[in-house]
Amino acid sequence: MKMLRKIIYFGGALLLLASCSEDYLEVYPTETLSAEQVSEAAEINPDVSAGTLLGIYENLYRRGSGGTDSQEDFGITTQYIQLDMMSADMAHLGKSYNRQTQISELTATLDPDNAYNYRGWRFLYRIINLSNLVIDGAGGNDVVPETEIGRFTIGQAKALRGYAYYFLAHIYVNDISDLSKEVLPIYTSANDLDMPKSTLQEVFDVALNDLLEAETLLEGFNRDAKIEINQDVVRGLLARLYGAMNNWPKTEEYAKKVIDAGYPIMTADEVALLPGEDGSVGGFNDINSIPGVLWGIDITPQGQGLASLFSWWGFMDAYSYSYAAVGNPKGMDAGLYSNFREDDIRLYQFNSDLRPLGKFYYKGAELNGFGLFSGPQVNIDSDSHYMRIAEMYLLHAEAAAENGNFAAARTSLKAVLDLRLDDSSYIDAMATTDLAEEAALQARLELWGEGQSYFIMKRRRETRTRGSNWLDFAGQSFSHDDEKLTYEIPQNEILFNTNLGGQN
Q1: What is the C-alpha to C-alpha distance for residues 136 and 161, in angstroms, rounded to an integer?
Q2: CATH number of 2-267+387-500
Q3: Quick one: DSSP state of residue 335?
């Protein structure tokens, strides 16, 4: 943690340089340090590359990481909220303040000039650009640093770049099974400019190669904080990627590798505010107290600068000063909610309006008797998480079932359900497609609000129907490849990079 604190300020400074331009043209802003500058500085002080890397991590959660000053622009979890809504699992229950309204109404995704499309593009290509700076500074994509710190730094940079390409390949591509379609530009060096579209297969190949190399480079890496990507997180990202490609044997293999690392699944007390409990052990608000969180950011009151409205919690937590508390609530889709069994403790995550009042609550909510809007919380010090071990158990169960390994699938699925249900024996009779679909359904129930529903929908090529509690399109169905569920490439990117050749 000392090294993290030592160099995060340098990383943040790099990000400020990288964040000044609002020009759509610049996938890589000219204010960013060049690869040559980073390389030269790194020769003098190895902490420079590490500082750049931690600047990327800061970009995952900082306000404005998508290139705007909007209160809806705060990194990964910005996208998680929007994607969960687009996938139909997170219902928009109120439109006060006009937040996420265009996502709920599915109009933003049809307008290439809309800022919602721009934020995702800018956010993810900034991660790629900054990762390229680190990699270029070490000598390029084919170089394996001689020092341990060098290997670990490059390994994390490649993992982050691979993750960004995986993300882009979902949110800007209608049908992720159409591998021959030209979809996105690929940049593997900070010196690359105005690249043409590559095929989806090529984008997946770059992501896969990056993550596989990261897996090797991060062997033996003991991280200081959960925001840093270690080998287990890389393997989790590989399991997700292989799942997107429907490579079920590799999905099963990599999910099992993460399971075998020994992270405990969250208990009933940790996942839900059960009757008679004070909520002190739950709430998903402290990643360090939850061993089952593999990857996330520990938000502290000092130095983070996250005003309560400019964060995932500002849009989801009804107990603090937030949009969720005062007119823009989110809730579980009523149709999805109906899949809970009557003995499922996750029922206690939601109130009668299906708002997640028993799942997500900030650290001071119990002190205020869980009164709605019991804040104001001036600064958010509740954490954000990006990957949990329960996801890997459920993904392993899905993949094993697809591979015909039904016993293994049941074992992994029941490992989670035995901590959620009084009786999970109904799983024993399941096989073939039913077992895989049950694992995917349980992932949607388990991971609601955690940003994975959209990826599950595209992985399984699903059609989903919005439930009765939606304000928009209640009862209407949408296929995974519906253009309304995919962002448009920002129009100015097409105008200024003539090599893109038009909209997807």
Answers
A1: 13
A2: 1.25.40.390
A3: H
Instruction: Average the pLDDT over 336-350 and give the result.
Output: 98
The string of DSSP letters for 161-216 reads HHHHHHHHHHHT-S-TT-TTSEEEE---STT--SPPEEEHHHHHHHHHHHHHHHHH
Residue 165 to residues 121, 129, 210, 387, 474, Cα–Cα distance (Å): 11, 12, 10, 17, 33
- Residue 257 corresponds to which amino acid? K
How many angstroms separate the CA atoms of 11 and 406, rounded? 47
* Measured distance CA(416)–CA(190) in Å, rounded: 43
Q: Minimal CA–CA distance to 130: which of 298, 6, 225, 12?
A: 12
Q: Given CA atoms 407, 411, 417, 423 in this order, what sign does their dihedral have?
A: positive
Asked if 401 and 439 count as a contact pair (C-beta separation under 8 A), the reply is yes
> How many CB atoms neighbour CB 41 within 10 A?
18
* Pairing mode, strands 463-465 and 182-185: unpaired
Residue type, 346: R
Q: What is the dihedral of CA 484, 62, 53, 49, to 10 degrees?
A: 130
Instruction: Provide the residue type at 282 as one letter.
Output: G
**Nearest-angstrom CA–CA distance, 131 and 11:** 12
Q: Token digits for 290?
A: 């939850």
Q: What is the mean pLDDT of the chain?
A: 89
Amino acid occupying residue 379: N
Residue 37: the pLDDT is: 53
Q: What is the pLDDT of residue 224?
A: 93
DSSP run (H or E) holding 384: strand 384-388
220 Ramachandran zone, left/alpha/beta (phi>0; psi -120 to 50): left
Q: Which residue reads 């709605």 in tokens?
A: 372
Q: How far does Cα 242 stand from its chain's mean position?
A: 16
Q: What is the Cα 165 distance to its own chain's centre?
A: 12
Distance (Å, rounded) from C-alpha 63 to C-alpha 85?
21
3-class DSSP state of 62: coil
The residue whose two tokens read 């997640």 is 356
Cα(1)–Cα(240) distance, integer angstroms: 28
Mean pLDDT of all residues in 438-442? 98
Pair 206, 186: CB distance under 8 Å: yes
3-state helix, strand, coil in the chain (%, to 5): 50, 5, 45
**DSSP code per residue over 263-301:** PPPP-HHHHS--TT---TT-TT--GGG-TTEEEEE---T
Q: What is the pLDDT of residues 226-267, one digit of tens each?
A: 999 999 999 999 999 999 999 999 999 999 999 999 999 999
Residue 303: left if φ>0, alpha if ψ -120 to 50, beta else—which one?
Answer: left
Tokens of 231: 């080998």
The answer to whether 183 and 197 have CB atoms below 8 angstroms apart is yes
Look at residue 124 and give its three-state secondary structure.
helix
**Token code pair at residue 228:** 């840093």
